[in-house]
Prior knowledge:
By secondary structure, this protein is α/β, with parallel strands linked by helices. It has helices spanning 4-8, 32-44, 52-65, 122-136, 139-146, 151-159; strands at 24-26, 69-71, 74-75, 78-81, 88-98, 109-118. Helix content is 40%, strand content 20%.
Amino acid sequence: MADSVSSVEGGECNLAGYLTGDRALLLDVHSKHEVLDRLIDCLAGSPEVASREELAAGVYEREKLMSTGIGLGIAIPHVRLASVSDLAVAAALVPEGIDDYESLDSMPVRLVLLIAARSDQHAEYLRLLSRLSSKLKDDCFRERLFACGSSAEFYAQLIEK
Length: 161
């Protein structure tokens, strides 16, 4: 991928280093399980992820510990695994929202960003999570994402600096 370290250094959070257009999805799904499976399948097809089974097990194990629904219509499931060669992201916009995601604020989740990192990428992984969370707290940015009508538009908004 692009120079991953520079994608999260400084105050910027540039997803272009981790997210490709084919991994930005506009989905018509109705459950947490459906959206997670679609994102797992999507990310498992990327060169950074060697094992779909390990990715799925890691994501669902993480969700058992605590839901990754952070509120404001957003969920950020995330894992660090030995079978991942470099940090990678898959994103889904679910216009109708997912009621069963168990978000911290109990609101339906409309945006899900799945992050997979190599097990030793702790600092970079935490920087990406932190900067992404901060960026997504911006009401205007979030509303632009929620208003996207196509996968291409969704991807363009996500990678905008």
